[in-house]
Amino acid sequence: MRAGTTRGALLAALACVLVGGSFTANSVLGHYPSADGQFLRYALACLLLVPLAGSDGMPRLRALDARQWVRLALLAGIGMVGFNLAVIAAERSAEPAVPGVFVGCAPVVVAVLVPLLDGRPPQRAVLYGALLVAVGAFTVQGWGRTDGPGIAYSVCALGGEVGFAVLAVPVLRPLGPRLLSATVCAVAAGEAALAGAVMDGGAWLRRPDATESAALLWQAAVVTVVGFVCWYMGMQRLGAERATLFSGLIPVAAACTAPLVGTGSYGPAQAAGSALVGAGVALGSGALRPRRSAAAVEDDASDQRRVVVHRAVPAAGQPDQPGARDDRLGADALAAHEDPVPGAPGHRDRHTRQIVGEPDGAARPQGRVETGGPHERERLGDHGLG
């Protein structure tokens, strides 16, 4: 795995581990209004991200067209606010494992959807790795009690997770990870405020207590600011397909941190599922593939900007010109037992394997002749060279 790919994998893994660990913080926000919490979380995260966005943030935002702003609104509404509301609604009639299992299928959907949108077939290794991640996530969480609405909201949560990855691809390049995170947090805060006003009326913003404030601060400063920036930096290096594989670490991190607060246990099933998730991530991200030569160009998003060519091989579209250290095609150096002759073999030479000069021919470029055998010495003598 190349250095840039390794860094992207570490960033995506850190982001998903932070999100998985945030489920512990969610457990203390069970009685706090969901829209209120999302507004406070994303508004505070936006304030923290603005200084990190760079001094050229406003010119880059003004350069966006209407379609890109619509995509940002959909990214915040579907992938952030909508995703969280769907998970909360699903858990009202289903056990938490049910939406978790559906969200664990997001790598499979992204591994198929993103290539189709680009007009290319899915990468086999990424698809197989995504299937392993989905099976591992199911093994870690298991399956719980649910009903029709619980399944429906879980499917909506899956759509939000997929949208969070797919919708960000076209706007990640012009904005960059930090400015994109700040922008979508600002948009999500506005959308959460609108949703809270519709659902709760004038009493939608309740003041949180000390415990709820600490949980919201953790979600804003760590999960959103650090997690979002790391996630988009990882996606920038890996591409959406391979980065989404790491979302399988979310249930693994949740299962590992649950015993710390007494909300769950980590047993053999969780260990087996964690191993499957790790194998799927390693397979799909390319960690299990052998390292290729420096002249090979990998087919991931981070390598499409780089072309590495051998010194003696011209780049695509370039003439095959010798370099400073390359030798032009010329006569081979003569061995110790070879003597130069003034001509090359002509059409009257019956022995095609013997190189001699034609007696009546003009001088030709030097060739080479074997002088070790008696027959060769006889013919050379007839030509006046002996």
TrEMBL record:
Residues 7-139, 202-283 form the EamA domain. Keywords: Cell membrane, Membrane, Transmembrane, Transmembrane helix. Residues 373-386 have a biased composition (Basic and acidic residues). It is found in: Cell membrane. InterPro entries: Diverse_Substrate_Transporter (IPR051258), EamA_dom (IPR000620), EmrE-like (IPR037185). GO terms for cellular component: plasma membrane. Pfam families: EamA (PF00892). The chain crosses the membrane at residues 40-57, 69-90, 96-118, 125-144, 150-172, 179-204, 216-233, 245-263, 269-288. It comes from the Bacteria. Coiled coil: none annotated. It is a multi-pass membrane protein. Residues 336-386 are annotated as: Disordered. Belongs to the EamA transporter family. This is EamA domain-containing protein.
